[in-house]
Hints:
Largest sheet: 6 strands, antiparallel
Helix content: 25-40%
Number of strands: 9
Amino acid sequence: MIARNPSLTEQVMAHLRERIAGGEFEGGRIPSEAKLASVLGVSRTTVRDALSRLEHDGSIYRKQGAGTFVNEPGLQIRSRLEEIWSYEQVLRDHGYTPSVRVLGVLEEAADAAIASDLGIAPADPVIAMEKLFLEDDDPVVLTMNRIPAAYLHDDFAESASEPLYEFVEAHCDRHLAYYLSEIVPVALDDHQAALLDEPAGTPAICFEEIGFDQSNAPIVRASSIFRDDLLRFRLIRRKTGA
């Protein structure tokens, strides 16, 4: 039975994704809306909405006259770029045992670019947190997050290892609602290369992001650099109207 908090549709989606990932649907065929609704104790409308979202993100496909099926190529997408997730969860989804190392937490003056991104004045204090995420024993993601110091209301140093969205809710009394993200290529500098165990100048992928709270105010400036030999992201692109 599916509980009614928070969102029934999201819970049904999560339940079906787990069963899909576990290969629980014989022949890859998804049961009918009526059967799923009966088993899960929700309405057919909720099931229909969940299936529509799963179809949109490529997890399933519908074949007219035959039914609904698991989309095997879609199973290669372990982390969806349109969702907010922790890097620990990303690494688990890729079959690794994750760990996180907090490299430093310090207060610094915002330069002009960071101040502009965060809607604060140049030289206003920001808290900078640098973290390294490892899969098994290999470093794979290096992050730097900057939050205006004025937003932090208590002692947070012991919580720096928490996923960023949990950290913001616990210590800023705000909700990280979404990111505006750019995916850019970078060449690792000496500092980054040493931490990621790669030669300086190695090409890498970087997420440059501004996180916004529930009031649409910028709250965090984040940079994440990935070793693409260890972690790859995939997505499904569709023709408009398809």
